[in-house]
């Protein structure tokens, strides 16, 4: 319960009891009170929709029992999300989004985890916030009109008494007195308190939105904390927590294999994979078995490796003139850098690129998409359209992703490798 609302209500009652208690017999007129109260309420209902009756009944209780917003705890929670995303990647927030009690913040986190572009997340959250403000304004307007109508019916009652020839007696002024009391002590205070509560709620939702957008942008948790502290008074701001010093990396005891043996094992694995593909692809793609020839599969490796593999499997070195590029470079990106890349690529293009990707690249990509997006990709990869795609389409999809990577590197959002 809001103590100020209760205190104000008790103070109004005390003032009336002390000031006009002795003259209550002259001040109270049940019929006049019913005309002013009922008439003003009825006219107000005529001016609004039927659903607004619920607002008329609930808003006084919401003012008396307002929702509490724990600002400092909320800032600490958002900063904690930022630290988790910075340390483990934004996908680590998927469980936090499912456990988040506030629907507005949970929706924003899920959109960020799913890799939705920042502009769309901001647009969706801003749209929801706009309509929340609009609903609140309707409730505030209802009580403003209610107070005006009570005063209006007080004037009508007073004018009617004068018209009936009662002169300027006390009874003549009673309807206007009732209207002013109902408006000034009930309708308008509720409206003003509701406006203040609405402003507080909107402020906290904007703070949530700012925090989520900053997390998705990869801002430093201390910067996010500073941004969110700007929304509240200086005396209530959250103090920065000390960031633990990073531990020195432990040296692995496993000896690093010699380059020659690594190259040899790599060639052996490639040869084995190609032989398996040559055997199984006609069964997997019965309608277009030649779409994935051995020569076309070899476009993913460099010239020297290609010659070594072709020699080892007794195949000619003449291969189609396909663009030369290194899609394996994606395995060298950090989780955060991969997530920044995935925000710019649709899941259909990504699924097509994964058809021709190595297991290492696939593993890195699927580790950095949400469970829902991963399921969509796997379903799309199993469709007839993707399964029958030519190598040229796969190459184009991979080149498109590498082009996006180059663009992000040009903007210094991802460091050059």
Description:
The chain is built from 19 helices and no strands. It is mainly α and 417 residues long. The protein has three domains: 64-236, no CATH class; 258-322, no CATH class; 329-417, Orthogonal Bundle (Annexin V, domain 1). α3 runs antiparallel to α8 (118-163) and α11 (259-284) crosses α13 (303-312). It starts with a helix and ends in a 7-residue tail after the last helix. The model is unreliable at 242-264, 280-292 and 313-323 (pLDDT under 50).
List the helices and strands and how they pair.
Elements (H helix, E strand, L loop, with lengths): L2 H18 L3 H4 L2 H18 L4 H13 L6 H18 L5 H6 L3 H11 L4 H46 L6 H48 L3 H9 L29 H26 L9 H4 L5 H10 L22 H8 L4 H9 L3 H9 L3 H11 L2 H4 L3 H20 L7
Helix pairs in contact: 3-8, 3-9, 4-8, 4-9, 5-9, 5-10, 7-9, 8-9, 9-10, 11-13, 15-17, 15-19
List its traits.
Annexin V, domain 1, mainly alpha, 3 domains, 417 residues
What's the number of extended β-strand segments?
0
- The total tally of domains equals 3
Give helix and strand order, one letter per element, not per position.
HHHHHHHHHHHHHHHHHHH
Q: What characterizes the major β-sheet?
A: none
Q: Give the overall average pLDDT.
A: 75
Q: What is the CA-atom radius of gyration, in angstroms?
A: 35 Å
- Helicity range: over 70%
Identify low-pLDDT runs. Answer: 242-264, 280-292, 313-323
| Structural class computed from helices and strand pairing | mainly alpha
Quaternary assembly: single chain
Name the shape in a single word. elongated
Number of helices: 19
In whole angstroms, the N-to-C terminal distance is 59 Å
Measured by DSSP, the beta-strand proportion falls in under 5%
